[in-house]
Task: inverse folding
């Protein structure tokens, strides 16, 4: 007859006096239960190993944690890491001026009017993009010089950044403007915030005369 | 007893797994983020690879004289003069950047958004021992800084970018 692992002193006492007369409930043998601490530790170890394997296998191609888009509206301030950005609008032209030189394009020039300042320390906002309704993404053109945006904390600069896009990119009357405060590659590889706004563009209002791109200017306090 | 030993072993294994995971995921922070940015502040008088700054004075300016006439800060901004007493014993680094830090923790770069080549003011802090025949470094160098009007200076930072990071000099503003 199996014996319990931890005899109850009370049971021993009653058992020695009246086993035959008193229907004492005998303890039953039970399988040894694993301690809850062991299960917890084992579960923790399994989870950690699983996370480790996942992290170890992450590459740029299968990264499950790309950046998180922060939606903002044209005409409102948005804070993205070390930048505060304010988009004023956009216009479209067939030809732009770079100094006295005319720049032609097989598509259209999209000029985005925006302002930005820094939050903590001076930094340049280098990476902006435009995505059309087909999912095609365009970077700021390197055919036109942007000028120097020497932004600083609460020191706003305003100007136009220029994109070269096919006419079909503007067919839907709006594009998505993307603001990558740490660069596009970072935004696509690590869970960092980037800005996204729907930017209305009138494909019928295309300037046919050469357009001068607005020069970068330091704004008086309070202006955007 | 063996159950307790097993639990302890699993816990140790868990901690080791966590440490290994943390080590791997912090690779960027350890190898790039910390060493590529100014994180370790040294106080006045400390030696930063042969460069020492003993005092920093900051004063409000109404205007400065440029080649094109008098220049005033734009509306809503304040112009400052930063004076730094710097000693150097090195010739590897020619010039470093100066920043003004305010009480809100905002950092503003000297010589940014102000006129260039203003008499008596540097664009960057000169920190190389002059070569034979060159003028000695002035005992005090001055730079211009533009900030929003509400900025209250707290410290001057001397940073050398990748040449000096993660260390930089942070000198509390006097007066």
Result:
């Amino acid at each position: 007859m199996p014996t319990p692992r931890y005899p109850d002193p009370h049971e021993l006492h009653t058992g020695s006096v009246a086993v035959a007369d008193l229907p004492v409930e005998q303890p039953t043998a039970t399988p040894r239960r694993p301690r809850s601490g062991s299960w917890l530790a084992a579960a923790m170890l399994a989870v950690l190993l699983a996370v480790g394997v996942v992290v170890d296998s992450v590459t740029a191609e299968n990264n499950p944690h790309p950046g998180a888009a922060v939606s903002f509206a044209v005409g409102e301030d948005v804070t993205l890491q070390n930048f505060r950005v304010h988009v004023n609008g956009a216009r479209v032209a067939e030809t732009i001026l770079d100094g006295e030189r005319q720049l032609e394009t097989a598509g259209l020039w999209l000029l985005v009017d925006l302002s930005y300042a820094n939050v903590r320390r001076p930094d340049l906002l280098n990476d902006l993009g435009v995505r059309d309704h087909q999912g095609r993404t365009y970077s700021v053109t390197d055919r036109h010089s942007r000028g120097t945006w020497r932004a600083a904390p609460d020191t706003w600069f305003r100007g136009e950044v220029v994109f070269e896009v096919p006419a079909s990119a503007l067919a839907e009357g709006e594009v998505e403007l993307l603001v990558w405060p740490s660069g596009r590659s970072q935004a696509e590889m690590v869970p960092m915030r980037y800005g996204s706004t729907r930017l209305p563009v009138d494909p019928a209002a295309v300037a046919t005369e050469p357009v001068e791109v607005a020069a970068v200017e330091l704004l008086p306090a309070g202006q955007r | 007893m063996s159950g307790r030993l097993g639990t302890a072993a699993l816990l140790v294994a868990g901690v080791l797994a966590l440490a290994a995971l943390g080590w791997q995921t912090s690779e960027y922070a350890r190898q790039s983020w910390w060493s590529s940015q100014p994180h370790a502040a040294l106080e006045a008088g400390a030696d930063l690879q042969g460069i020492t700054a003993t005092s920093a004075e900051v004063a409000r300016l109404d205007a400065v004289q440029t080649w094109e006439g008098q220049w005033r800060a734009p509306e809503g901004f304040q112009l400052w003069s930063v004076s730094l007493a710097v000693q150097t014993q090195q010739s590897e680094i020619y010039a470093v950047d100066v920043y003004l830090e305010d009480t809100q923790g905002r950092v503003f770069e000297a010589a940014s958004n102000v006129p260039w080549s203003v008499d008596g003011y540097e664009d960057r802090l000169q920190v190389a021992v002059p070569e034979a025949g060159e003028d000695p470094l002035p005992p005090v160098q001055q730079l211009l800084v533009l900030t929003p009007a509400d900025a209250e200076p707290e410290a001057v930072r001397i940073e050398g970018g990748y040449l000096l990071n993660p260390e930089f000099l942070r000198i509390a503003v006097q007066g």
